[in-house]
Design a protein that fits this description.
The complex is a heterodimer of chains A (about 300) and B (about 300). With about 300 residues, chain A is an all-alpha fold. Chain A contains 16 helices and no strands. Chain B is about 75% helix and about 0% strand. In chain B, helix 13 packs antiparallel against helix 14. The chains are: A mainly alpha (about 300), B mainly alpha (about 300).
C-alpha cells in the first residue's frame, strides 16, 4: 500500500504541463477499484503489523491498559532469558523441519513420483484419501489423530502385536504432532510436484536412459534440476504455513505434557491470551515473523545460487 | 524410489502418445503399467498400498465410532451400529446454530473477498502500472505471513476499539486475511480473458465498471467460483481466528464449538464428537468435489496458484 502511494507521487512531477490534471484524474480512476481491498488490508493487516511493532516494545497487558509504558527492549531481553521461550523456538524449528521440510516435502514428492503413470483408478483412490486428509478442517484432523494415537487407539491396536504399543501423546508428543501435520499437509506438496512433473519433457528422461543413466541418476540430474523452482516455492509455502500452525497441536496435546510440544505459536497464545501479557506475546509474534522471513530468505538465496 | 523413476521413463514414450491423444493437457497418462516390469511395478504398488493405508487409518476411528454405540476411544469395533450419536447432537444448540454461524462467517467472508479481489484484480491485470509488479510481490509476501503471529496485535486492536465478539468485525478480518491469496488467484484468472474482447465495449463508451461487470466477469465465472469456494473452505476450517475474536458461544462457528465440545470437563461423548466432526466436515468435502469439477482435476488448482 505504501509502495502504491510512493510510486504514484514520484510519477506525477515528471509529467509536467497541461496534461497533468487529466493524467492524475485518469490514474486515480484506474486505481479506484483497488480501493476496497487496500482499505481492508491497511486496516486489518498492515495496521496490526505496525501496531505490533510498537506494542512489542511496551509492557501492555490486558488487565490494566492505563499503565502501558514504553519499555524498550525489555520484552526481547526477557524472551531470550526465558528458557520456556527458547525451548519453544527449538521445538518450532524441529516441527517445521520434521513435518514440512522432511515429512510433507519428501512424502509429497514420493507420492507424485510413484503415482505418475499408474492406472486411473489407483490414482483417483490414493489422491482422494491424501487430499481428503488435507481438506478436513484442522480441528477434526486433530481429533482423528488424538484418537488414532490414543492408548487404546488404532495405531496401538496394530502395533500391539509387535509389542510396540505405548501412549504416543505422552511418550513422544513431538513425533505425534509431526506425523499428524505430515499427514495433513502432504497433499499440497503432492499436487505441486504432480503439476511440476507433468511439465518435465519425457524426451529428456528417455535420452538420459539411452545414455545409460540409472533411475536414481535420472531423478537426481534430470528431473530435480528441472523442477527446482517448484521445489523451492513449495518449501517456502509449506514452511511458512507450518511455522504458524496452532490448531492441530493445540487440539492434540495442548502443548503438553508439560511444555514438551509447546511450539512458539502455542507459547505465544498462552502468554498473550491466558496470562494477558499482550506486549510480551506481540514481541514473540514479531520473532515468529522474523523467523518466517529468515526461512524465506534462505530459500530465495537457494534459487539465486542455483541460477548463477 | 529408484524403481519408480525407471518405471516412469520406460513408459515415457507411451505417455507422450497418450498425452497427444488427450490433447497434450497436463493430465497424467493412464493405464500404462507395463506388464513387463513385474517386480518393480509390484514393489511400487506395495509402497502405494502402505501409503494409502497410512493415510486412510486415521479416518477409521472417526467414521466407525460415529455409528457405534457407547464408543470411547477404543479402536476395536463393537459391531453394534446405530444412528443414536447423530440423533443426540442434531439440535439447535449443538449443531444447527454453530453450523449456521460457520455459514454466515465463511459465506460473508467469501462473498466480500470475491467482490474486493475482483475489483482489485482489474487494474492489476489490465493496466501496466509502474508499481504493479512490486504491489503483486507485496501481496505474495503477505500471503505467507503467519496469521497466528498477526492475531495478537489484531486482538489488542479489537480490544481497544471494542470489536471483540463482533461477527461483522470478525468477517472483516477474515476477509483481509484471505485477500492476498484471492487477489493473486483472481488476477491470474483475469489475465486469461483477452483484452481484445473488452475493446469493443470501450469503443461503445463503456467505463471500466461496465466492462468488468458485463464482459470480463461473465467470461471468468469459473475462476470466480473457484476463488469463492476456496475462500469458503479455508474459512470454514479456520479455528484460530474465531477462537480468539468470538467469545459468546452463540456466535461461535462449528470449528470452535466442536473444540469446546471436546475439551469440556467430565466425560467426553466421543461417539457424538465423531458424529459432529463428520457433519462439520461433510460440506467441505462436497465443496471440494465441486471445486475439482470446475478445475478439471486437482492439478489445476496449483496451476492457478503458480500463475
Amino acid at each position: 500500500m505504501t509502495v502504491a502511494t510512493q510510486q504514484q507521487t514520484a510519477r506525477i512531477p515528471m509529467k509536467g504541463g497541461a496534461r497533468r490534471p487529466r493524467r492524475v484524474r485518469r490514474t486515480f480512476s484506474r486505481l479506484l477499484p483497488l480501493g476496497p481491498a487496500l482499505l481492508l488490508l491497511a486496516i486489518f493487516f498492515a495496521g496490526p503489523l505496525i501496531w505490533s511493532a510498537y506494542t512489542a516494545f511496551t509492557n501492555m497487558a490486558l488487565s490494566g491498559s492505563a499503565t502501558t509504558q514504553f519499555t524498550g527492549l525489555a520484552n526481547f531481553r526477557r524472551m531470550f532469558a526465558d528458557p520456556a521461550f527458547v525451548k519453544s523456538l527449538e521445538l518450532t524449528v524441529v516441527f517445521v523441519i520434521g513435518s514440512a521440510v522432511i515429512g510433507q516435502n519428501l512424502l509429497g514428492m514420493l507420492l507424485a513420483l510413484i503415482l505418475r503413470g499408474r492406472n486411473r483408478l489407483v490414482r483417483t483412490i490414493v489422491n482422494g484419501v491424501v487430499i481428503g486428509a488435507w481438506v478436513v478442517p484442522e480441528v477434526v484432523a486433530g481429533f482423528a489423530w488424538y484418537a488414532f494415537l490414543y492408548k487404546t487407539g488404532t495405531l496401538n491396536a496394530i502395533l500391539g502385536h509387535l509389542g510396540l504399543s505405548q501412549d504416543w501423546l505422552y511418550t513422544m508428543p513431538m513425533l505425534a504432532v509431526i506425523l499428524a501435520n505430515t499427514w495433513r499437509g502432504t497433499a499440497f506438496s503432492m499436487l505441486v510436484y504432480s503439476a511440476a512433473l507433468s511439465d518435465v519433457p519425457p524426451e529428456l528422461l528417455e535420452a538420459a536412459a539411452v545414455d545409460g543413466a540409472s533411475s536414481w541418476q535420472r531423478l537426481r540430474y534430470v528431473t530435480i534440476p528441472l523442477i527446482r523452482r517448484s521445489i523451492v516455492s513449495n518449501l517456502m509455502l509449506i514452511t511458512l504455513q507450518t511455522l504458524a500452525s496452532f490448531g492441530l497441536i493445540y487440539v492434540m496435546t495442548g502443548g503438553g505434557p508439560g511444555t514438551a510440544s509447546s511450539t512458539t505459536p502455542l507459547y505465544m497464545y498462552q502468554e498473550a491470551f491466558q496470562f494477558y501479557q499482550l506486549g510480551y506475546g506481540t514481541a514473540m509474534a514479531l520473532v515468529l515473523l522474523v523467523l518466517g522471513a529468515l526461512f524465506s530468505l534462505i530459500y530465495l538465496r537457494l534459487i539465486k545460487l542455483e541460477d548463477s | 524410489m529408484s524403481e519408480l523413476a525407471s518405471e516412469q521413463s520406460s513408459t515415457a514414450f507411451a505417455r507422450t502418445r497418450t498425452q497427444r491423444r488427450r490433447g497434450g493437457g497436463r493430465g497424467v497418462a493412464s493405464g500404462i503399467t507395463s506388464p513387463k516390469k513385474g517386480p518393480a511395478a509390484l514393489a511400487s504398488y506395495a509402497v502405494i498400498l502402505v501409503l494409502f493405508l497410512a493415510f486412510l487409518l486415521p479416518f477409521a476411528w472417526l467414521i466407525l465410532s460415529s455409528i457405534e454405540t457407547g464408543s470411547g476411544l477404543n479402536a476395536t469395533p463393537t459391531w453394534h451400529f446405530t444412528l443414536a450419536n447423530f440423533k443426540a447432537i442434531l439440535n439447535v444448540a449443538t449443531v444447527y446454530q454453530p453450523m449456521l454461524n460457520s455459514l454466515i462467517l465463511s459465506g460473508g467472508t467469501a462473498l466480500l473477498t470475491v467482490v474486493c479481489s475482483a475489483l482489485a484484480a482489474y487494474p492489476l491485470s489490465r493496466f501496466h502500472m509502474r508499481f504493479g509488479r512490486s504491489f503483486l510481490y507485496t501481496i505474495l509476501f503477505a500471503t505467507g505471513l503467519p496469521i497466528t503471529a498477526v492475531m495478537v496485535p489484531v486482538y489488542s486492536l479489537y480490544a481497544r476499539f471494542n470489536l471483540v465478539d463482533s461477527e461483522p468485525a470478525t468477517v472483516l478480518f477474515m476477509t483481509a486475511s484471505s485477500l492476498p491469496f484471492a487477489i493473486w488467484m483472481t488476477k491470474n484468472f483475469m489475465d486469461g480473458v483477452p483484452v481484445s474482447l473488452e475493446e469493443a465495449a470501450w469503443t461503445d463508451g463503456a467505463n471500466w465498471l461496465q466492462s468488468l461487470w458485463r464482459v470480463v466477469l461473465p467470461l471468468m465465472a469459473p475462476g470466480i467460483v473457484v476463488v469463492f469456494i476456496f475462500t469458503f473452505v479455508m474459512q470454514w476450517g479456520n479455528f484460530f481466528v474465531p477462537f480468539i475474536l468470538l467469545l459468546t458461544p452463540d456466535k461461535q462457528p462449528a470449528s470452535v464449538t466442536i473444540y469446546t465440545f471436546f475439551s469440556q470437563y467430565g466425560e467426553v461423548a466421543y461417539g457424538q464428537l465423531a458424529a459432529f466432526s463428520i457433519i462439520y466436515t461433510a460440506p467441505v468435502i462436497a465443496l471440494y468435489g465441486v471445486l475439482s469439477k470446475f478445475l478439471g482435476g486437482a492439478f489445476n488448482l496449483t496451476g492457478a496458484v503458480k500463475g
